[in-house]
Every structure is written in structure tokens, then in C-alpha cells.
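Project outcomes to date are best conveyed with an example. Our students and postdoctoral researchers have been running inverse folding experiments weekly, and each run begins with a structure described purely in C-alpha cells. The record below, which covers 163 residues, was selected by the lab manager from last quarter's runs and is presented without edits.
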């Protein structure tokens, strides 16, 4: 078994621990290994189990370097959290907009169905007006009027006593 001398072991693990196939491919390409000599498995040993390899150097960092690394990882985490929050916010807004569109569409279809069921002929102009309407309160008013209307005009003309 061959061991790599990883100067920045923790960074290396952080990058490649979740992508062993990429690491395996990289090592085989760099070491020009193929066939029976190709690396096919990779095992990360805990620090206390690392073999003693003559000439191998352990990674050492100053406190300033460790602090800088921690600051960068903290900032990356903050960016991830912000991105996740913005994504959730966008998904919620998209859901709410989709639900509102769905309600309006249902009301438009329902209004046209009530008019058809009541035998009230719908002109192209009136159909276009209904299909273009996104105001749910107007659709609600028209639906209420359609349940007792005798003509198309009764649906779109507000009652005389309304203000």
C-alpha cells in the first residue's frame, strides 16, 4: 500500500472526502497508474493511525493561518445560509404567486361555467374580459352576480345600490 504525503491534509480531505471517484482518478492520472497498478480504493485514517513514513512531513499551521482559515469557512457558511434563506424565500413567494394565479384561474373558469349552465351567452369581448381579469374580488363579484343574472349585462354592471 502506498501513502500520499499530504501537506494540507485537512484541506485535502475537505475537498476530496465527498468525491472519492475524482480523487482516485486524479491520483491515477498523476501517478500514471492503470490496470493492475491503478488505485481502486481510498481510505482515510484518523491522525493517530497514520503510518510512520520516513521523510513524511506533517502539516503545521500558525495560529494566524488557522484563524484565517476559520474566518473563511465561517464566511462560506454565512453565504450558504443566506443563499438557503433566499432560496426558501423565493420558493415561498413563487408558491404564493402560483396559488393566487390558480385561484384566479379557477374563478375565471367557474364564472364561465356558471354563465354557460345558466344559458347566458358570453360574447368574445366578455370572455376576453373574464380571461384577462386577475382581480379576485372582481371575479367574486361577477360570480355572485352570475348566480342570479338574467343577462351578461347583469353580471358586469354593479347593482344600483352599490357605492
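After processing, the design step wrote out the following sequence:
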Amino acid at each position: 500500500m502506498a501513502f500520499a504525503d499530504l501537506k494540507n491534509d485537512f484541506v485535502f480531505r475537505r475537498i476530496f472526502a465527498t468525491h472519492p471517484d475524482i480523487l482516485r482518478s486524479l491520483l491515477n492520472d498523476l501517478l500514471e497508474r492503470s490496470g493492475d497498478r491503478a488505485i481502486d480504493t481510498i481510505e482515510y485514517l484518523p491522525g493517530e493511525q497514520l503510518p510512520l513514513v520516513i521523510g513524511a512531513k506533517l502539516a503545521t499551521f500558525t495560529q494566524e493561518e488557522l484563524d484565517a482559515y476559520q474566518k473563511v469557512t465561517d464566511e462560506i457558511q454565512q453565504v450558504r445560509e443566506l443563499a438557503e434563506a433566499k432560496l426558501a424565500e423565493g420558493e415561498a413567494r413563487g408558491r404564493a404567486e402560483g396559488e393566487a394565479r390558480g385561484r384566479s384561474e379557477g374563478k375565471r373558469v367557474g364564472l364561465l361555467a356558471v354563465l354557460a349552465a345558466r344559458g347566458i351567452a358570453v360574447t368574445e369581448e366578455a370572455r376576453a374580459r373574464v380571461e384577462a381579469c386577475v382581480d379576485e374580488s372582481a371575479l367574486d363579484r361577477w360570480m355572485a352576480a352570475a348566480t342570479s343574472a338574467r343577462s351578461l349585462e347583469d353580471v358586469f354592471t354593479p347593482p344600483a345600490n352599490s357605492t
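The mean pLDDT is 83. The radius of gyration is 34 Å. The training component of this project remains on track.
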